[in-house]
Amino acid sequence: MTGFALQWLPMLLALLGAAAAGGLVAGLLGVGGGIIIVPVLDVALELAGVSPAVALHIAVATSMATIVPTSISSSRSHAKRGSVDYAVIKRWSVPIVVGSLIGAVAAAHVDARVLAGVFASVALLAALKMLLPLDHVVLHKGLPGGLLGGILPASIGAVSAMMGIGGGTFSVPSMTLCGEPVHKAVGTAALLGLWISAPATVGYLLARAPDDVMPPLTVGYVSLLGFAVIAPVAWAVAPLGARLAHSMNRRRLSAAFGCFLALVAARMLYRAVA
User: Residue 143 carries which DSSP code?
Assistant: First the structure.
């Protein structure tokens, strides 16, 4: 086996595992899978010798690119079950696209430690939401309108683009806290992931990355190798997650996912301060 193959074999195996887990979680929770793909890909890139200064940027950008097909696959499965609220899609589409573009531009220009800090903070908040029994808590009857009705989806788009996730981590709890049924919130979040990932991916592809430290087959900050491995596997697995979402105990599932997110947050926090 050549030195090149030995160098990239661990990364390829990690990518396959991340793709399968990411696709399953995408369909199951409507979160796009990036919350798993980003930390796994970050570690895999460093194991393959990619500079830590750009590894997390590449992980975020590549994860965002893979969410485009995953969101399509997952949302189609949810739509067949009538679990997509198109009224929310219509209201949130423009501000969420604007926010995702802003987030992608910001992420391409910040230090890796700042990016890790953002990921850690948001992952920890998401972990708390998953772990606490808040499934039936409603803070507001219906989604807010006016200025807040635009700021909320724009913020979801911006932070999601900076983290390389599909937005379900924020949009699902936001919708459920406003009285949206959880299964419909998950399905709607899956489609919103497309409105976040498509424009953000364009931003990452056009970003001016430091060529001297970038791995081969990378355009902007998007790894074409990572996309080629992750996207088809995640696409194939996402419908399975969507089917399971309608049959599993969501409280136990949320608790398990919350524990995983807490570990991810701890690892990213260490990366931010080390």
Answer: -
